[in-house]
Amino acid sequence: MSNNILEMKNITKEFNGIKALDSVNFSVQEGTIHSLCGENGAGKSTLMKVLSGVYSNGEYEGEILFKDNKCKFNNIKDSEELGIVIIHQELALVPQMSVMDNIFLGNEIGSHQKLDRLETVRRSNELLKMVGLDVNPEELVSTLSVGQQQLVEIAKAFSKDVKLLILDEPTAALNEAESKNLLDLLKKFKATGITSILISHKLNEVIEISDRITVIRDGKVVKNIQSIDESTENEIVRNMVGRQLDDRYPDKTAKVGAKIFEVKNWNVVDMQDSNKKIIKNASIYARSGEVVGIAGLMGAGRTEFALSLFGNLFGKKESGEVYLHGKKIDTSTVKKSIKNGLAYVTEDRKGQGLILIEDINKNITLSSVEQFSKRGVIDTHKEIKQSTGYMDKLNIKARDIYQKVEDLSGGNQQKVVLSKWLLTDPEVLILDEPTRGIDVGAKYEIYKIIDEIAATGKSIILISSDLPELLGISDRIYAINDGEITGVVNRHDASEEVIMKYMLGMV
Fold first, then answer.
1. Are 341 and 427 in contact (CB under 8 A)?
2. What's residue 380's pLDDT?
């Protein structure tokens, strides 16, 4: 008998003749936390989809052994019956259903087509207590935070008598406190004998929590790490990208010039409650070639500030002015904002930044259709020329411009979003969490693109929850707390401690 709960042998999976997985061997010891690392598109999620039955038996080569028994999963239900449960990065909850209905969706409690509501409530409370979530099981999921929804997904997994829990980027959209809570929960599960597989780009979390780490690159396992210490992070990065990254941030080439963008005394109130002020007398400026960071805790008002500047997409402007090259500009609508030189890259690239079912060409030209149309007729030759140009310029890795963006990795999707807005030729580019859910290699590419954009004389406003990222690429950093700008620090005077004090309103 092996102490491995799982063995995947010689797993090969192809898409249109391209090997996403190439003879992968992957094993997990029972009662451990085993992390799976790799760049976007390396094959991590594909491997887990094979394991969980998303890709059924016959759609791949190789074999799966779970608890020493050969398994052939034809669907997700088959794997769940053995206790293998996957929680995807995009949560599979129904927002307008209650917590308990989501937990037991497809596995409803009752008999003779009659639901047992009392037992459902009782079981839900047990499961919610197990995952440390104190909410009413009859509450709608839509009222919960992302972190709370993540816990509902885990409670749902435990309703299926989970033996092996697979989590795909579980902390990607969580704040620091929520992430810590989730990691502590995984440690608690481990103590009870539950085995977990963790897919994550947050290497500090991986190192903190993992017993073993497997690195996958280009569909192949390149490293199994069993002894974890301080040097592990560099080892992971080196194996992920196939080269040594001595510095996570490229050298700055952009020269900072004169002030070109300024926001003065900006006040925004809630759309439904005019007595609730969201942004309070905020003033910032940016110079040509400058990357200006905005730091703040979750809920501090960073995104709300950006959205209110870009067409009043959040809240209602009460007062304040925006200036470009010393001239007051109108940003009251998205169309006016774009016309007057602003662009905004959303933190939610899949939900708001892209049309996933459309191709790269259509997504890149989406915000610039007027450039290619005359009397209502689109000049497709000109459109294709621009899309191809940006695909080459930003090194978007895809078959061609007609590949659907839903099939691209996170890093390449983000490059498509950047291309879309660069095509509008903005003076000021607002980037909201531009590297969220992107691997270290792709992050480096995004950082280089940001520097190249700044080098053309543009101003960059960078919102990020990653303090090392802000410190690594920003020239100046503003801190925001409860809708107020609480301080600004130059690059050379900044540290995580200093920024955090401003973020907490302690200075």
1. yes
2. 83
> What are the residues whose beta carbons fall under 8 Å from the beta carbon of 135, sequence distance 6 or more?
99, 128, 144, 148
Q: How many whole angstroms from its chain centre is CA 8?
A: 28
Count of other CB atoms within 10 angstroms of residue 107:
11
* Half-sphere exposure of residue 402: CA atoms within 13 angstroms, side-chain side: 1
Instruction: Look up residue 491 and give its DSSP letter.
Output: G
DSSP string, 408-454: S-HHHHHHHHHHHHHTT--SEEEEESTTTT--HHHHHHHHHHHHHHH
Q: Which superfamily does 4-241 belong to?
A: P-loop containing nucleotide triphosphate hydrolases (3.40.50.300)
Q: How far apart are CA 440 and CA 448, in angstroms?
A: 13
| pLDDT value of residue 1 | 45
Smallest CA-to-CA distance from 332 within 346, 348, 318 is with 318
Residue in 7, 3, 13 with CA at minimum distance from that of residue 25: 7
Q: At what angle do helices 410-422 and 380-393 cross, to 10 degrees?
A: 130
* Domain spans of the chain, in order of start: 4-241, 252-341+426-507, 350-425
Q: Report which DSSP code applies to 250.
A: P
CA–centroid distance for 107 within its chain: 30
* Token pair in block for residue 155: 């409670």
Instruction: Report the C-alpha gap between 332 and 309 in whole angstroms.
Output: 8
Q: How far is CA 208 from the centre of its chain?
A: 20
Per-residue confidence (pLDDT) for residue 459, from 0 to 100: 96
**Over the Cα atoms of the chain, what is R_g?**
24
**Tokens read off for 165:** 């829990």
Q: Is the CB of residue 146 less than 8 Å from the CB of residue 173?
A: yes
Compute the distance between CA of residue 150 and CA of residue 152 in angstroms, rounded to an integer: 5
Q: Which of 452, 447, 467 is nearest to 249 (CA)?
A: 447
DSSP 255: P
Closest CA to 306 of 458, 483, 457: 483
pLDDT beneath 50: ranges in the chain? 1
Domains 4-241 and 252-341+426-507 share a fold: yes
- Coil/strand/helix, residue 474: coil
Nearest CA among 210, 231, 100 for reference residue 155 = 100
Domain 252-341+426-507: give its CATH architecture: 3-Layer(aba) Sandwich (3.40)
pLDDT of residue 231: 65
